[in-house]
Amino acid sequence: MTDKSTGLTLNRGLWFEDFAEGFVVETKGRTITEADIVNFAGVSGDFNPLHTNAEYAKDTQFGQRIAHGTLVFSVATALAYQLGMLDDTSIAFTGFEMKLRGPVYIGDTIRVQIKVGGRREMKAAGGGLVTFDVKILNQRDEVVQKGEWSMLVRSKPQQAPVAHAPTESA
Amino acid sequence: MTDKSTGLTLNRGLWFEDFAEGFVVETKGRTITEADIVNFAGVSGDFNPLHTNAEYAKDTQFGQRIAHGTLVFSVATALAYQLGMLDDTSIAFTGFEMKLRGPVYIGDTIRVQIKVGGRREMKAAGGGLVTFDVKILNQRDEVVQKGEWSMLVRSKPQQAPVAHAPTESA
Amino acid sequence: MTDKSTGLTLNRGLWFEDFAEGFVVETKGRTITEADIVNFAGVSGDFNPLHTNAEYAKDTQFGQRIAHGTLVFSVATALAYQLGMLDDTSIAFTGFEMKLRGPVYIGDTIRVQIKVGGRREMKAAGGGLVTFDVKILNQRDEVVQKGEWSMLVRSKPQQAPVAHAPTESA
Amino acid sequence: MTDKSTGLTLNRGLWFEDFAEGFVVETKGRTITEADIVNFAGVSGDFNPLHTNAEYAKDTQFGQRIAHGTLVFSVATALAYQLGMLDDTSIAFTGFEMKLRGPVYIGDTIRVQIKVGGRREMKAAGGGLVTFDVKILNQRDEVVQKGEWSMLVRSKPQQAPVAHAPTESA
Amino acid sequence: MTDKSTGLTLNRGLWFEDFAEGFVVETKGRTITEADIVNFAGVSGDFNPLHTNAEYAKDTQFGQRIAHGTLVFSVATALAYQLGMLDDTSIAFTGFEMKLRGPVYIGDTIRVQIKVGGRREMKAAGGGLVTFDVKILNQRDEVVQKGEWSMLVRSKPQQAPVAHAPTESA
Amino acid sequence: MTDKSTGLTLNRGLWFEDFAEGFVVETKGRTITEADIVNFAGVSGDFNPLHTNAEYAKDTQFGQRIAHGTLVFSVATALAYQLGMLDDTSIAFTGFEMKLRGPVYIGDTIRVQIKVGGRREMKAAGGGLVTFDVKILNQRDEVVQKGEWSMLVRSKPQQAPVAHAPTESA
């Protein structure tokens, strides 16, 4: 997004070159509510009683319903998207791998810590592959999932932001 | 959002002082789908046949179903929120007034142009009131709604961003 | 809706001529649940942490998550629609202006008081513009929003309800 | 709903005594969209491929996806509710029986014809049981479901509408 | 579903011939949450205050909001679908009749007991009509709805499962 | 699920011992609709214009909106869940890794091929870790995602299914 009068860019996505080793960001948080679990069951089609049956869940190791691991993961990627750090600079989300470390209960608030784990230039693709080390944390700073996301990111255009302009109103 | 290693702020909200006359921004766009209208009818409870009955809508001046004016308005405020320009700097959304100028059909893509229309310092409130002139446009650059939104925005802290720090992980 | 045996009209919309000064109605009430806020965030795209992050909201002036002002407004217009008082007699919703007066918390129940504030005949349009003064109240009778809605309303047909008949099954 | 200035009742529910033999009403219509089927699968948990798999549905007798019979039935009861004819006068929905006569495809528009089939006073319950003969029709006037709904309906208060007043703001 | 290496069928639907008198099954359970009621109001369009207005519901015989009877019924049919016992063997859901026996409150967990009540061969249709006696129970084993569902079910193919193969990937 | 009269188990989950090398299953299919993408944007919070803005998507390499990779992945895990092959026998979903190979467009129908890739007994945990090789395919049999899911699965009880009984009504 660009302030047309001042040229100030508020939500500029970052280029491949900007993702140096040591780069660390943290997303906003989001509370995972009972409604989120109900809605995610409905969108995905996964009505596992661990997520949708309070009586059943009582007798499990968790003692209550928990969020789908895929819900937690999906919200985490959305929190990362909301940072705007790849707006118009990502070419593709190429892969992810996650370990599930702990449950997310109704009412827990998750956020994501993202740091650059690795980077490899891919000139033919017009950018490079960035591997992000990712931790999803709850409000008690416990890691609930951790892993790695891979993104193909555009390189900084050699000559000015002109080439970038057409997408600004998207 | 702050890159903890470099201190680079990606999504910094703007202070009252940043909203000078002449400031103009434009949001991303969003396509209003049939599903959005169905979902909005369900969330709001407004099942007016103009939005939910294709047979009825055929015989109206529009010739087809149209989006709720309140859906268009709600999405517009969300597109503005997504700019991040008031992240942690808004105190309150105090009011809005809109004129409905034209229909939004299924498949139309809307975006919002926002410029500073007026500003009034309110020291007691710790900031000032900013009035934004707002136009909601479709993909043919037709104005579908226009009006004014009022926000109470925090003033830039006198001494450093320290006071602002506690909310960063929110 | 018409009882075909008796001709009794249950949900007849009112004509422009019916909206005399002094006309006052009140809608049913609706409880704004956590699920409504979650769903509205999803439909609008506004995931402001004030609405979606319980940890963040604790530290705000409200001490807890609150409903989007646009959710409250959207539900209010739907509650008004549900009265059926403009069924097949409204030509267009032309504009609205609202002041936000107080928060709506999870579990609050809102309803709307609507009275005729002004009216102006517009013969060319086949009716007239009615301005409604609107108050959205919670279960403690506190005004959470107030303002004005403008509707273009059809005039009573000169000769009988015949012209009105084709839309009855809509 | 009552116009407080004029006492005009717009959405008055009907009493047991009002449901004479021969009473017939018809609801508004609603288009059953792809989004409705997707959402209903999610709310109910019924992802039968006949409703959610376009490839599978091609090879069935219907040649395409169809709406859940329970979705059609649920929307029909809601269309009936929206008539307002039992607002504050129903005591309970006691039973229903339906025959499924034909498919509802994506884009079909359904409406409901309701007539009084039988009535039995139940003084002890403060009203009586009304049996409604119900037909759900599509936009080609084909019957897609037909059957019977039973409601226990309050009797008209002997002395004036005073007893009815407390519920008006509900 | 078929394990292609071993030929083991996990979710094989049952044939008309399999539904002997005395056949009884029970579904998994599902907790009806506030979010389910909110979502079902939105999908169906039934915003009866008994389901959506906590203040109103306090003053009713139930003392609180209850689930729509149609929500409970719809979830029950979905729980039955999830058993997979009619996967690719049902021809049509031909009818249902239910008596509503008691309320389902927010947080109640329902499940369904299904037994074969009657069966009638219908050679021309390639199978037979099975009538299931159905009870919907809550977590206290109280019957909240009971009735009868009718399904037209395919007969076991005379020569091998070959005719059944094309649908396996559906 | 157990047929109480015959003891026939329809949806019995499989034990760790049942997952031999060479075990292969395939799920049902599900069509990814525009409504699914809209709903998933709303549940996750990811409104990337590639998924929500038809005008923007036209100018990308895909030429149209595509489904979120996380939506495709979430639906795939749900399709696997629906097989019932781990009902009451899974201890935990411990991790996943996926490569994104191709886009899923509105209207594409996906299904999942799952085979046992590896297994390691973990006596202390009461079962073993099974690694599934997973391919998500569209209706043209193109692989859109592929990878590996890890599940901790219960071992077959030494003495009879008695230990398993308490969960049957869940």
Describe the structure.
The structure is a homohexamer of 170-residue chains. Chain A is α+β, with helices and mostly antiparallel strands and 170 residues long. Chain A has a single domain (16-158), classed as Roll (Thiol Ester Dehydrase, Chain A), CATH 3.10.129. Chain A is 20% helix and 31% strand. The first copy, chain A, contains four helices and six strands; from the N terminus they run ββααααββββ. In chain A, strands 1, 2, 3, 4, 5 and 6 form a six-stranded antiparallel β-sheet that branches. In chain A, a hairpin with a 5-residue loop joins strand 5 and strand 6 (143-154). Chain A is elongated, with a radius of gyration of 19 Å. The N and C termini of chain A lie close together (9 Å). Residues 1-10 and 161-170 of chain A have low confidence and may be disordered. Chain A binds chain F through residues 30, 36, 39-40, 42-49, 53, 55-56, 59, 68-71, 73-75, 77-79, 81-82, 92-100, 147, 166-167, 170, and chain F through 30, 36, 39-40, 42-49, 53, 55-56, 59, 68-71, 73-75, 77-79, 81-82, 92-100, 147, 166-167, 170. Strand 3 of chain B pairs antiparallel with strand 3 of chain C, so a sheet runs across the interface.
